[in-house]
Amino acid sequence: MFKKILLPVDLEEESSWKDALPAALRMAKDDGAELHILTVVPPLPGQIYGYFPEDFEPKMIDQGKAAIEAFAKDHAGGTQVVPHLAQGQPYSAIIDLAEKIGADLIVMGSRGLGRLQSILSNSASQYVFQLSTRPMLLVRDDLYVRHINRVMVAIDGTGVGDDALKLACELVRDVPGSSLLGVHISRQDIAPSRGGQTPADELLDKAVQRARGFGVEMKAIHGTGDIGRGFCQAAEEHKADLVVIASQDRRPLVARGLVDIDRLLGSSVSDYIRVHAPAPVLLVREPEGR
Predict the structure, then answer these.
(1) Rounded distance, CA 30 to CA 241, Å?
(2) Which residue blocks in 147-245 are alpha helix, DSSP H?
(3) Domain spanning 4-140 has what CATH number?
(4) Fewest CB within 10 A of the end CB: N or C in the chain?
């Protein structure tokens, strides 16, 4: 399912990747994927951000790549690893490389900070979380990464929500003995129609049939109340090892390369789940051009 997985690491700050690394390695091993490891260094004074030109400080490049290769050798466990070195703003380098190599998944550690805290602390994971259109696995640094056996997916009836369900089904199908739980949280109960089903019942029934079309039997549950809190409570109650959620990008194409401060600071269900979910969060974004 995944062919290229991108794991950004800060070789000087182990906490930035030590919890994300086991998940990245496990997924790469399960799918036979390449694991691309990126480290980003700051530019020299007066230098333009970007990847190192071929004639720029070859010794510095060699030292950086040697450090990444040594890291990969120590941690890869037989997985094919491709090292990358870039300089500049970490979030820009991560997004650029993900596009350049066609990454199927970005895996990043997350400190579980709220949105404003993340921005003020210049959290790369927060910016990539908001700006990248590629699937992204966020592993909070206070979580223990278990084997991915119990997968939970948010069912919302949107196009990108269908993408999240498809990805969740493919994950479960690839892991023998795993299970899938579909969760829909509505803000309030809606009376059943004449047929005895509520809109939530109909939505979940369609999701179950769609999962079955991917060869996966999915259990479905419905709750009411605050969507972010309800989803996190369900993940806790059902001991989910991984939660899969969708997040639509409503910005016009011309603005997707820019930081939208209102969007970064505004309330967001996906951001609440990122901070509070009791399991790693796999975020599925709306593809370009949809």
Answers:
(1) 16
(2) 159-174, 199-213, 227-237
(3) 3.40.50.620
(4) C
DSSP 233: H
Looking up tokens 């805290």, which residue turns up? 117
- Give 21's DSSP letter: H
Q: What is the pLDDT along the chain (290 residues), one digit of tens a residue?
A: 789 999 988 766 766 677 787 788 888 887 788 999 888 876 655 555 445 444 445 555 566 667 667 776 776 677 888 888 887 788 888 999 999 999 999 998 876 544 444 444 456 777 787 778 889 998 877 666 667 789 999 998 888 889 999 999 998 998 888 999 999 999 877 666 666 788 889 999 999 999 999 999 999 999 999 999 999 999 999 999 999 998 765 443 434 444 444 444 444 788 788 888 999 899 898 765 54
What is the rounded CA–CA span in Å between residue 66 and residue 265?
Answer: 39
Question: What CA–CA distance (Å, rounded) separates 274 from 78?
Answer: 30
Q: Of 34, 126, 47, 127, whose CA–CA distance to 86 is shortest?
A: 47
Give the H or E element holding residue 137: strand 136-140
The residues, any chain, with a CB within 8 Å of residue 207's CB and separated by 6 or more, are: 155, 165, 182, 184, 218, 220
Q: CATH homologous superfamily of domain 150-285?
A: HUPs (3.40.50.620)
Residue type, 177: G
Assess contact for 135 and 284: CB atoms under 8 A.
yes
The torsion of the CA quartet 74, 79, 82, 87, rounded to 10 degrees, works out to: -50
Find the angle CA(94)-CA(100)-CA(102) to the nearest 5 degrees: 95
Q: How far apart are CA 20 and CA 35, in angstroms?
A: 12
pTM: 0.80
Q: Where are the domains of the chain?
A: 4-140, 150-285
User: What is residue 50's DSSP assignment?
Assistant: B
**Rounded-to-integer distance, Cα 46 and Cα 69, Å:** 28
Amino acid at 95: I
